[in-house]
Write a structure and sequence with these properties.
2 copies of one chain form a homodimer. Chain A is an alpha/beta fold. Helix content of chain A is 38%, strand content 16%. The first copy, chain A, has a 7-stranded mixed sheet, sandwiched between helices. In chain A, strands 3-2-11-5 form a 4-stranded antiparallel sheet, with no helix packed on it. About 3% of the residues of chain A have low confidence. Chains A, B: Belongs to the peptidase M28 family. M28B subfamily.
């Protein structure tokens, strides 16, 4: 009995202890919530370190050699070779992505006629030697894509940049009817030089790059230019797309048919080198052109008689353009690749770069493509080895037919409009990765400056082991921020110069464009950085940004930095416009209110972020991330710019007013001042209302959700 | 020692058992993840039962008596009283909401002049007695809001519905210059009757409701109409807003100024009762009008000489309109109230109803307002008592100035465009809650039919204890679905008849409109349901839908039901258009492909939902819910209907073609057939492309996210 008692007591004790143990095990130890999977996965700095050390300059050099073996103009055989090369790399079993494929679009392009080359002649026989810059038969001769074919003959005149004001000024002293105008690149869009000329009766246009605008303002000869320096050689010709829309011209906004093509040059136009341009311009007769029309040629730039001086060998000669360009519909491909996100696969970070070039494209775009391929190699291998998978999905895009007007990227954004609008966190564009080896250059929405700074601080500047890309950058380009003190200056993506345009202007996606560059803006350069260390620095910096955007638990965007730019814009607008607007009874008070609402809302969101337990509230983190992701979408207004194709972002749309302020307001104000018409002042008021509504609307998305 | 051994052994055993216990407690029992808060909160059927039983018909009757004490036309003193009443109820400490406030907008309205009443006279002295229907001095006399003031005099003609084709037909036999046209409601928008008339030289327009179109096609006298039946009495006049936009007319899309007001009647127009109309029309001279122009008056409807028969007392008389309406900017208020969501506060279910009436508004809108107040009373009390808090946030909107053109709701959607687009799960509109007591009527996107069915099955039909609202409904209006068999027929929200319009057409938010009604469509009825049981049934049904939308872990939307409607649309379009389109070399294949892509994508999403462990993957549930919530947003295209104000939803936009198919395609096709012009056939092609892109784009949002 005693035994039984003891046993019972023992069992009792055991049961008690077991129960206590179970209770401890269940409640005490598992008090920290147990979250399945990686719901709170955040950036891993060790992974960043590993990524940075894996990025290899030699690999980038190999990529570039492969990509530039043959010219790869859009839809040519060379382009198809690059498609295959990208697919092979992204489908590689050891270093490829989760998935990669091509997407084809039927698009309208313009080519020179190979059997009937375009000709520019002076008088009977002097042929302008515009084809001489490269001898490879696969190299497309310089031409103006989308220039109409045609034969134009007339006396030459010099029309500066070919802006409306230039032709107006020139027409005051020279009868432009039946003339050929020679214009320099810059100041107006390429197609605009012909579009602006046509109303004055000009029958053809030549375009060249003045050394003044590209080679540090110096007239340059063969000994001073490439390959002896960064400078554009005298026979170098900038090719380009001469249209004013972007995306496929036959299918604006969608895959339609039977729509007239707007914005193309109405008269023949042809680019030439500055050596030829100098011979022509220095022989021109007529009155001297104004000071700000003068370039770097060692002569006085005259308007043209029209035509040449009697003392010149050309004297009575006409200039004749024989243009045989033709338009045709061709299949252009994007190559797409993805790494699936582990936690939020429905959030996308997109990294893109176009693939097509005009010629070999060692700079534009293949410096960018070779960098992208190195980033995908390093990340792809980590994924294949099971060492890493990003929190969000990463989409890589190798866009086709960018040179003809951002066609591949624009068609992509049109086709997947809803999906991309709803889910894209950010777009990173690296087109020309390396112009030169002096400094980083970055443009984008102000909200992303901080993640670029963080990334650039972790990368060594090329050739400067102990200096970071950030520390080097701040020396070349900086500004003073009320919040942050002196910081590198981030540019604005106001134009449509590369594939970021459809993402920024049409979709309203937070975007950036990153490159290594000269300490001034350089157009065409044909130099590799020494040992590809600049390429490596870009791969590291852009890759670091990409990983942070894909992996951060909380998106690394600052709405307060956006507010700072809106305040700068407002200050400029008030200084420039307020006095004049008051005389028209148009108040800027509601715009001031809107900017101040935005600042308050941004500060509020900063506080919410500070006070949120990020590691314990998955839906709250997602809520805040949605606010951050969708901020730029709130600035879209499809009715803001009825005359501007696919520009909807009221803060970043292009503006011809050239002021660092709200673009629609600046343009409307300039027009109203110039015309003085009431209807134009009403449009200024309309743009103020558009801005108020967009900025107040954006502020509403950042305040308390309910 | 033995003792110590035993003790050690005992301790050892205890430690072992404890460890086992801890291990069991930690691993075995807590294997189900422990989620803090209510991340997986779902609909609670017990709560629904409690809600249904709490909804009280007597409370609704009290609400209605309070709301209809005085006429409450927008911005009048009576309207302000209803604002205060709503605020008092929603701010009540025991039955109110979390928060309630008013939002004021400065809007452009049109009123009759009280000192100088509008007059319609025949000849020298016979005054048309259009003001006699109500004698209260606070009751606004019948007038056409936004009719210009003016004096118009001329011979009378009868112009049927005042459609373009009606005036064209009439003009073939009668010279319309200088005439006054009498038209019946229906067939064309109110303002359109004057807009269509003006090009023919008509100088003024009268409008009346023909008994044919409202009282079951019977001519009705005082003994047969209200209060003896549902029928509109002979002196009853339908008031209305005579404009073609919706939202504030001075600020289309935003708060702008200096914009011309489009779409208003260019000539004076005035509504009258059918008793007066009958006197006028039966005296008309001229040729007999066609059969389909005849109404229910006991006479032959003639075109008019123009003017009256010689045998009539009016013979040579002119009809004269003296209209003194004036436009003015007034402050109109929305009253807003919210219940904050506990788990996903950044997801909104919006429930709305306008507050303003033309007169007492016992039906339109106060039957709906009294129902809304009962829903908020029951839910508000549950919240105040801590018994319930919805998963998502609920926003209640009591819109102002709906009768003048959906002004309050439209301004709200403009002001909060980005925020509402990003976060709104659904909009429920209950305007006139009870037209009559026969059957439920519901219109909306096909994706929400199932949640309405589920809710209607749980509510007893008024006066029929053992029959559900659903079982009663299916008897009155049903259709055969390939998937579901015979089900009640859900209507489509293609027009702009109530405040759902800005949510459907401008924001692309999944919406519905719910009421109890007659077994035919009735325009103006002044009857309460017996004991307010129909009101109660609507409060229960709409409230049930509201709770399900706010509380369901997974949104109760079916994309496959949407696919079924697209397939119906496609079938109709192919039958109607394909043969003719082939002759124009326009193919419908890509549209067929798009609809089939959508069906596949919808089925795919159904499978993903089936295979998802909803109770264990918070971010995956949110991902699927985002796909469901944003589906309708993918159908928006701001460029689809450049001529239709704020219509962007390519599936539900209004169409004058009257076919149950894609509206833009139907209208473009009708126009092209009628004009035969190539440019119009190109627009047909354009609309096909718009549809392809929207439907394929929507399908992309439903397939695998990456």
């Amino acid at each position: 009995q005693e035994m039984i008692k003891k046993l019972l007591l023992g069992f009792g004790c055991c049961a008690c202890v077991l129960t206590i143990g179970i209770l401890i095990g269940h409640f005490a130890i598992s008090k920290t919530p147990f979250w399945p999977s990686d719901v709170f996965k955040d950036v891993d700095e060790n992974f960043i370190t590993a990524f940075l050390s894996e990025v290899d300059n030699i690999q980038i050099e190999h990529n570039l050699r492969e990509l530039t073996k043959v010219p790869h103009m859009a839809t040519t055989e060379g382009d198809e070779q690059t498609v295959q090369f990208m697919l092979k790399r992204w489908q590689d079993r050891e270093t490829g992505l989760d998935d990669a494929w091509r997407e084809e679009y039927s698009v309208y392009l313009s080519f020179p006629n190979t059997t009937n080359p375009n000709k520019v002649t002076v008088g009977q026989d002097k042929e302008v030697n515009y084809t001489a810059d490269q001898l490879d038969p696969n190299v497309v001769p310089p031409y103006a894509a989308y220039s109409p074919a045609g034969h134009a003959k007339g006396k030459l005149v010099y029309a500066n940049y070919g802006r409306p004001s230039d032709y107006m000024h020139l027409n005051e002293t020279v009868d432009l009817r039946g003339t050929i105008a020679i214009t320099r690149y810059g100041g107006a869009g390429r197609a605009a030089k012909a579009i602006n000329a046509e109303p004055y009766g000009v029958v053809g246009v030549l375009v060249y790059t003045d050394p003044y605008d590209i080679n540090d303002g110096l007239m340059s000869d063969l000994n001073e230019t490439y390959p002896h320096s960064w400078y554009l050689p005298p026979s170098g010709v900038e090719r380009g797309s001469f249209n004013t829309l972007y995306g496929d011209l036959l299918t604006p906004y969608l895959a339609a048919k039977g729509i007239d093509i707007p914005g193309l040059p109405p008269i023949p136009i042809q680019p030439i080198g500055f050596e030829d341009a100098s011979t022509l311009i220095c022989a021109l007769d007529g009155l001297p052109a104004p000071n700000d029309w003068q370039g770097s040629f060692k002569c006085k730039y005259n308007f043209g008689g029209p035509g040449f001086k009697n003392t010149s060998t050309f004297k009575d000669s006409d200039v004749k353009l024989d243009i045989y360009n033709y338009g045709t519909v061709k299949n252009s491909s994007n190559v797409m690749g993805v790494i699936r996100g582990s936690v939020e696969p429905d959030r996308y970070v997109i990294y893109g770069n176009h693939r097509d070039s005009w010629v070999h494209g060692a700079i534009d775009p293949s410096s960018g493509t070779s960098v992208m391929l190195e980033i995908t190699r390093v990340l792809g291998r980590m994924v294949k080895q099971g060492k890493w998978r990003p929190r969000r999905s990463i989409i890589f895009g190798s866009w086709g037919a960018e040179e003809f007007g951002l066609i591949g990227s624009a068609e992509y954004t049109e086709q997947y409009f809803a999906k991309l609008s709803e889910r894209t966190v950010a777009y990173i564009n690296v087109d020309i990765a390396v112009f030169a080896n002096a400094t980083l250059r970055a443009s984008g929405m102000p909200s992303i400056q901080n993640v670029i700074f963080t990334s650039a601080k972790q990368v060594s500047a090329p050739g400067l082991k102990s200096t970071s890309v950030y520390d080097n950058w701040i020396k070349y380009s900086n500004k003073s921020s009320p919040t942050h003190g002196v910081i590198p200056r981030i540019g604005y993506l106001t134009g449509a110069g590369s594939d970021y345009a459809p993402f920024v202007h049409y979709l309203g996606i937070t975007s950036m464009d990153i490159s290594y560059t000269y300490d001034r803006i350089i157009y065409t350069m044909f130099i590799f950085s020494v040992g590809f260390t600049s390429h490596q620095a870009i791969a590291r910096t852009a890759g670091n940004v990409l990983i942070r955007l894909a992996d951060s638990l909380l998106l690394p965007f600052s709405c307060s930095d956006y507010a700072e730019t809106l305040e700068d814009y407002l200050k400029e607008a008030v200084e420039q416009y307020e006095v004049e607007l008051k005389t028209k009874n148009i108040s800027m008070e509601s715009l001031k209110h809107a900017v101040s609402s935005f600042r308050l809302a941004a500060s509020h969101l900063d506080e919410v972020i500070q006070s949120t337990d990020l590691k314990n509230e998955p839906l709250k983190v997602r809520m805040i991330n949605d606010q951050l992701m969708l901020l730029d979408r709130a600035f879209l207004d499809p009715l803001a710019f009825p005359d501007k194709y696919a520009f909807r972002h009221v803060i970043w749309a292009s503006s011809s007013a050239g002021k660092p302020t709200f673009p629609g307001l600046a343009d409307a104000f300039a027009k109203a001042v110039s015309s003085g018409q009431t209807s134009d002042w009403n449009k200024v008021h309309y743009h103020l209302s558009v801005l108020n509504q967009a900025i107040e609307g954006a502020a509403h998305t950042l305040t308390n959700v309910i």
